[in-house]
Predict the 3D structure of the following.
Amino acid sequence: EPEVTQTPSHQVTQMGQEVILRCVPISNHLYFYWYRQILGQKVEFLVSFYNNEISEKSEIFDDQFSVERPDGSNFTLKIRSTKLEDSAMYFCASSESRGGYTFGSGTRLTVV
Amino acid sequence: ILNVEQSPQSLHVQEGDSTNFTCSFPSSNFYALHWYRWETAKSPEALFVMTLNGDEKKKGRISATLNTKEGYSYLYIKGSQPEDSATYLCAPHTGTASKLTFGTGTRLQVTL
């Protein structure tokens, strides 16, 4: 069964550093998403991406965040200057259309 | 911001018990409701996508019902097994948005 793969599974970074979280969505999917879950809280939507541009983003997704699909297979989330409160599990997902999401297994980001 | 509530927050049952939990969501602009099963360190696994009022879906010992008029869905597990232990997340899909809004989840633990 096709999978969404995320790397790394765990990333530790110092506050103020830039991090890039990587995702390889399912190849024939057209919609791509990032979600995150801070420990003990709800899974929160960050951003959706379709047709090579952001289609929707949440209030969390401020200027510190950016997404890119650099080569037609990877989908990356960049956090420019990490803060302690960015520590969370970050999930990538893709879908062929609205609905029918497939999630990756997540990257646990720890900012120290 | 969509208000999605799940109850109970956590549940501890014995093997063989049947159990159910609730997801409530705003009924306006409804498009679909997703249920996911999420085990620690794994990808959230899609269980059901439900769209029609009165829908009932079944997958093995797990089933779900949907009431879009009053804005709730029930998930039932018949004869719980230890491998059912996981967090069960619901996420409605509303209007024209492609994003999902997740509830807080119900953490189920099944013991022998």
About this structure: The mean pLDDT of chain B is 93.
